Amino acid sequence: MTNELLSNFLPSDLLTYFDIVHFELSTDSKGQECFKIYLDEKNILPDGFSSDDYESKGFNNITFIQDFPIRGKAVYLGIRTRRWRDKLDKSIEIKRDFSIVAEGSKITQELSVFLKGTGR
Q1: pTM for the whole thing?
Q2: Which of 6, 17, 16 is nearest to 67 (CA)?
């Protein structure tokens, strides 16, 4: 139930690629209450790659991006993307390009568009 409810507050299509793994009420660096939603990339290879050639080898470091506030509290999405390894040469090389983060920022694309529209 919690994941279903949270999915209504997340950027569109985010749950196509990520699973919600944790949700908490926390405090941010300014001591303000905030929501943190933790997401892990699903174990699904990007299009054009085969599980015969590549395997998941854990996650990259978590990245926090800010999304729309909920009930006056800041919302931070803690996102961990997968590391994909070539089974033959053991190199880590595949990385899916996610367009949920606004270029040059630490906020979601949807929040960036909204803020631009308000003249901020």
Answers
A1: 0.78
A2: 6
In whole angstroms, what is the distance from residue 47 CA to residue 62 CA?
Answer: 23
Quote the CA–CA distance of 69 and 44 in Å, as a whole number.
30
Domain positions in the chain are 2-117
CA distance 64 to 101: 10
Q: Which residues of 61-98 are buried (b: 16+ CB within 10 A; e: fewer)?
A: eeeebbbeeeeeebbbbbbbbbbbbeeeeeeeebeeee
Report residue 19 as tokens.
Answer: 């699973």
* Tens-place pLDDT, residues 15-40: 888 999 999 999 988 899 999 999 99
Which pLDDT score is estimated for 89? 86
The CA radius of gyration of the chain, in Å to the nearest whole number, is 16
